[in-house]
Amino acid sequence: EDKVVQSPLSLVVHEGDTVTLNCSYEVTNFRSLLWYKQEKKAPTFLFMLTSSGIEKKSGRLSSILDKKELFSILNITATQTGDSAVYLCAVHDSGNTGKLIFGQGTTLQVKP
Amino acid sequence: EADIYQTPRYLVIGTGKKITLECSQTMGHDKMYWYQQDPGMELHLIHYSYGVNSTEKGDLSSESTVSRIRTEHFPLTLESARPSHTSQYLCASSNRGNEQFFGPGTRLTVL
Question: How confident is the model at residue A5 (pLDDT cuts 50, 70, 90)?
Fold first, then answer.
């Protein structure tokens, strides 16, 4: 059965800390891995990763994929209170065109 | 501006009522999805569509139904709402790529 597992499930840090969120997956026909940030309502897209070892970066956020070990990490440096959210990892299985398999999410709380 | 919209954003309704959650997108996307998400839990796909007149059930069994008569609209209907239907419903769309764009969600409470 295809699954996506995120860790930790929740994390509390202080402003300025660096955090690393983990996502491991088991899917039959991997096509891509996506990271989303979900605040109070809808998830907003952060990154899509398809190739191993190529870091995607956007400001203080970065992510990398390891297709051999079947995991991805999302790094946030110099965290701010506005980074507080649930971070979702999802995997696109090419055997289920267009469908995403989501992990449980990591709830990040950044304290002032 | 291209976007994806959901209405209503919040709905509180009594048991047994028929409800329709609206979802529309102006991006011209072929694929549309409905997810159900309980507080603190992961998103579960309940319906999806690859285009007009195409609808499929998702991974999570749901008593709701959907229709796709027009590309831009993908409404979800519950014929008889029950308290177990209380949840957040998220609509999303995508085109050829894997990236799905999400609407703001409808938070449904059935009393």
Answer: very high
Residues of A within 8 A of B103 (CB-CB) are 42
Contact by Cβ (8 Å): B25, B72: yes
Q: How many CB pairs under 8 A join A and B?
A: 50
Name all domains of chain A by residue range, CATH numbers in brackets: 3-111 (2.60.40.10)
Looking at residue A93, what is its pLDDT? 77
Domain hosting residue B79, numbered range: 4-110
In this prediction, residue A54 has a pLDDT band, given cuts at 50, 70 and 90, of confident
CATH number of the domain residue B43 falls in: 2.60.40.10
> What is the number of domains present in chain B?
1
